[in-house]
Amino acid sequence: MTPTVTVDIGTTSIKLCLFDAEGALQAADRCATPTRRDAWGEIYDTDAVMDAVRSFVDALDPAARRAVQCIVIAGVGESGGLVDPDLSLVSPMILWHDHRGADLLTGLTEADRARVYAVTGLPVNANYALSKVAWALAHAERSTAAAQWLNVSEYVAALLTGRRWAEPSLASRTMALDLVGRRWSREVCGLFGVDPGVFPPLRAASEGFAMDPATARAWGLDEVTVHVAGHDHMVGGVGADLRPGEMLDSTGTTEGVLALLRTPRLDAVTAATKLAGGLACDGDGFTLFASIPTGGSAFATLRTLLDREADELADLVARAHRDWVLGSVDLDRLPLVLPQFRGSPPPRKDATARGAIAGLQTDTTAVELVLACFLGMVRQFAEVWELFDLELDRVKVIGPASANPLWLQLKADYLGVPLSVSGFPEVVSRGAQALAHGIRLPWSASEPRDVPPNTARTAELAQWRARTADRWAHLAEMPA
Predict the structure, then answer these.
(1) Could you count the other beta carbons within 10 Å of the beta carbon of residue 477?
(2) Residue among 169, 288, 285 at smallest CA distance from 227
(3) pLDDT, tens digit (0-9, with 9 covering 90-100), for 235-292
(4) Do the domain assignments include residue 92?
(5) At a CB cut-off of 8 Å and minimum separation 6, what does 386 contact?
(6) Residues 301 and 158 in one domain
(7) Could you tell me where the beta strands, DSSP code E, fall in 218-346?
(8) How far is the C-alpha of 375 from the C-alpha of 480, rounded, in Å?
(9) Which domain holds residue 65?
(10) How far is C-alpha 308 from the chain's CA centre?
(11) Are 307 and 197 in the same domain?
(12) Which ranges of 61-151 does DSSP label H, i.e. alpha helix?
């Protein structure tokens, strides 16, 4: 490999790293993802995104900066905007969870929706880019004849190179890609009145373009190649050396559940689960993926709910973990928490759904409520995994959950399966470097540790799950 700057554009933060030629982390920083509101929803401040990347490069030691030969960008799926050949924006750069195109989905018939899944592997949903593309074309204030739709990661790469292209795993999050044919679907695009020519040609993560020489000089760089690594959760799968029979638990603001497939699952049974099919970043396989809206964001919810500072909440989490492993938790005292604080995961997949708490008592403690919240998250997580209908040998965990012993132990105990937890904080960024150079890194490079399940607690949780099944179902079926 070569010395590489990686850019991981997440929902709430941008992670920036410098890796040397051996893949060792040399520098890292992060900043809040710069966004703002417009009249319809939330959009990126693209100038501020580029400023963040430039500031990281500027802050590198001059010798380290001159040694950089590669810049690789990964990030959230589903986001994007229309971009002209001169790289000016014809539309806003829209965030992935912005639903401004939702009304365009209402006219689809059940047959249309079934066909969309059979071609693209995606359930019809306003998160995916195609409805945003149709909205942007309809609301453009100038000609869109030469405009192409780029994901935010692809747009950053375009600004650095002067070239427009689409990376396959990100393309498979648009709801416009024929998953088997690996080409833009005229049939599906036609349902929205969109010409598939609005999408650029596909280019694999290992195939970059040279950075614009004038830009490179202005940034104090020599000859640099720019790559788009792909959808952040999928890139994390590469960094975790994910294999068939394993599940990647990719935690961040949301929680991503990912499995690798040798062939795509486009049947009606899988379509009913609303799991998302896609292309793997390495270009060889396929993915099955679910996004759980409430992941690491639960920390902010609990801080607000309990009116606690971050260190105070961390202490409550530690106390709950201690009580759990010591066997001093009475599960029947715990409230039942349905943690749909930011919407529901598959199979409902409803952005308007909200959480609920049942069974609060006059003497319910803050520690019990924290434990109940994470237990609810684990229960929801397990139910989502059941939709995959795959054998499970091991769970690989990356992201913020790696530092939360309560969340980890509850998950291992609930699933009855060992977790292998990354000790390295930037698995997505390491995966991005590997993808750009066409190699695989072993999972051992992420310094994993095992979290085994406790068989007695697994049995106790199964009994608790049965006892609370009716109440849980009642909470889940409440109207949004």
Answers:
(1) 8
(2) 169
(3) 999 999 999 889 999 988 889 999 999 999 999 999 999 999 999 998 779 999 999 9
(4) yes
(5) none
(6) no
(7) 225-231, 246-251, 255-261, 276-279, 286-292, 336-338
(8) 22
(9) 4-235
(10) 27
(11) no
(12) 62-67, 110-120, 129-139
